[in-house]
Every structure is written in C-alpha cells, then in structure tokens.
Amino acid sequence: MPVVNVKLVGKLSKEQKAEISKRFTKTLEDVAGKPPKYVYVVFDEVDRGNWAMAGTLFSDM
Amino acid sequence: MPVVNVKLVGKLSKEQKAEISKRFTKTLEDVAGKPPKYVYVVFDEVDRGNWAMAGTLFSDM
Amino acid sequence: MPVVNVKLVGKLSKEQKAEISKRFTKTLEDVAGKPPKYVYVVFDEVDRGNWAMAGTLFSDM
Amino acid sequence: MPVVNVKLVGKLSKEQKAEISKRFTKTLEDVAGKPPKYVYVVFDEVDRGNWAMAGTLFSDM
Amino acid sequence: MPVVNVKLVGKLSKEQKAEISKRFTKTLEDVAGKPPKYVYVVFDEVDRGNWAMAGTLFSDM
Amino acid sequence: MPVVNVKLVGKLSKEQKAEISKRFTKTLEDVAGKPPKYVYVVFDEVDRGNWAMAGTLFSDM
C-alpha cells in the first residue's frame, strides 16, 4: 500500500516516467517486501511559474 | 477544518464531484460533528500517464 | 485507485475513523463506480499547535 | 529544507506568486533561520470545479 | 481558502510557528487579497530519520 | 528539485529508509538527470489505525 508521490519542476517523458515507476516499485519490493501490485507511483509535474527556490520562481531564473 | 483530498486517475464529471463533495461533507458532520462550512473537499484528477500501479503507468496498461 | 486524504485538527476515535472510511469508500463506489478494494482512505490528525486559522494556531485560540 | 505548498482555488498572477515566494522565504529565514536556498515554495492552483466548501463546488456557488 | 502546508525537518518552537502563521496569512491577504479567516497554515515537522537529501537521511549526516 | 514522498502503513527500519532513499535518488539521477543534491525523499509512516483499504482500517483487518 505505499503511495509514492514524485513532485518536480517541468516535464518528464513518458519513457522516463515508466522507467522511474518500474525502478521505484522494484526498490520497495526488494528493500521493504512491498508487493508491487499495491505500490502506486504518482507524478506531479509542476510548471516553472509555480515553483520557487530561494525566493525566486524557476520561470524568473 | 477538515481538508479532504481526493486523488484519482482520470476524470470525474461535474455531477459526480458535486455529489461526492456533498456526501463526504455530510459524513464528516454526522460522524465527527464537523461543521460543513469548515469542510473542504479538493479533487486532484491525475492523467493516466502520471500514475503507475505495480510498476506500470495506467496509460501503458 | 482513489487515494483519499483526510487532514484535520485533533483526534478522531477509532470508531469514527472506521465509519468515515466505510462511508467514503461506499460513496466513491456508488457515485463514481470505483471498486472498494482500490480505495484508500488515510487520516492525518494534526496537533492543535501545528494548525493555524486566520493567522492564529488552534492551540492559542 | 522546508517545502511550502500553497493550495488555492483559482489563479494568481505571476507577480503575485513571485512576491508571495519572496516573502514566505524571507519569513522562514527571519523567524526560523532557514537558509533561503533550501526553501521551496510550490503553488497548486485548483480549478473552481475541483474544490468544494460546505459541500458545494466553488463552480456551483 | 488557501491551504498552506509547511513541511520541514525537525521541530519549530510554538513561538516560531505562531509567527510564521501570522506572517504567511498577512502575506496572502496583502498580496492576493485572501481573507485571513479562510487561510489555513499547517505544519508538518518531519523526523530527521524520515527525510533524505542527496540520498542520505538527515539522521545519518 | 524533485520531492519524493513515500506514504505507507506501518514502520520501516532505519536501514530500509536509508537504502530506499539512496536508490530512489540514484534512479532520478540515472533516468532523468536530476542532481542528487536537489532530491528530497520524505517518509510518512502512517499508523494502522489511520489507513483504510476497501473501507476497513488496517487495524481492524
């Protein structure tokens, strides 16, 4: 039942998201014995105008 | 002051979201005595390409 | 695959959480056709010293 | 390393988000000594059809 | 109706949380016109053993 | 700047969390070119009485 949320600035390709999901799920199975069928991986791709670091939006850097 | 977040794959209709909000809010009032005016229900409709189960994106199933 | 997060100030009893989980899950089945076995309901009971409304912590009200 | 998530109904302008990010980051530095370079501020602008208060979606008010 | 979540490693004092809540709420009022009574600020103080940066838990640094 | 949140029922050992953090961070570097120093992995270990599946709390199964 783990729910993994990946929040990042910008976009990933479909292939990157597929590969990350596969590896994260395998990691949770190998390291913590979590059955893959209960592992959710959810991506949250945030626009550069909606994320600031050090007080400045990425879209302004 | 409860904040209820509903995260799911794909879309719900406007009518479904209205009905779910109504029932969730009533449940929190009936069961836990929470005043409706303080209950927020927020929907997060996630694209099938952004959610994986068992290591596979829904868009690849 | 809906994941419902309920965030609130203070504690609910075990019975309240059981009843809310049951009703939320049934609502998602009835209104949106979501199979109960894929519905997660997660409670996040926040301490009064960690939640502010109108700029004041609940523990200071 | 604080991650600040601001979730709200509707949209803010680019200027509003830039100013809020700047002030939030400065607040965390001034009040809690957090180095600005480790402060993330992330905005989540939710559609009026995806947020309910008191059991009614904002889009239905 | 903004909900602001502040997630950080370790603990803040009661006074720090009160002051941050006050300033964040005022910022949202001044910059975005949000009525204070609808602003929630929620703190999530994460244990050093539950947060990793650069692949290492803070408790191992 | 990816923030990875891992939410699960029950506890992991310190060693499991360290290993998962290491592998997740390496995956994001290898697959998506994310610099490790900007990758946060945060664990949220939820009590069995606070998570329901199929309408039943884990503590009642």
Describe the structure.
Chain A has a single domain, classed as Macrophage Migration Inhibitory Factor, CATH 3.30.429. Helix content of chain A is 31%, strand content 31%. Chain A is built from one helix and four strands. Chains in contact: A-B, A-C, A-D, A-F, B-C, B-D, B-E, C-E, C-F, D-E, D-F, E-F.
Rg of chain A, nearest Å: 15 Å
- Rounded average pLDDT of chain A: 97
Whole-Å distance between the termini of chain A?
38 Å
Low-confidence stretches of chain A: none
User: CATH superfamily membership of chain A, which one?
Assistant: Macrophage Migration Inhibitory Factor
Shape of chain A: elongated
Named at the architecture level, the CATH assignment of chain A is 2-Layer Sandwich
Order of helices and strands of chain A: EHEEE
Largest interface: A-F, 22 and 22 residues
Strand arrangement in the largest pleated sheet of chain A: 1-2
Strand content of chain A: 25-35%
The CATH class name of chain A reads Alpha Beta
Task: Give the helix/strand class of chain A.
Answer: alpha+beta
Oligomer: homohexamer
Beta-strand segment tally of chain A: 4
What share of residues of chain A is helical?
25-40%
Tally of contiguous helical segments of chain A = 1
Query: In the residues of chain A, how many domains can be counted?
Result: 1
Largest sheet of chain A: 2 strands, parallel
Examine the coordinates and then state which fold CATH places here, giving the name of the CATH topology of chain A: Macrophage Migration Inhibitory Factor
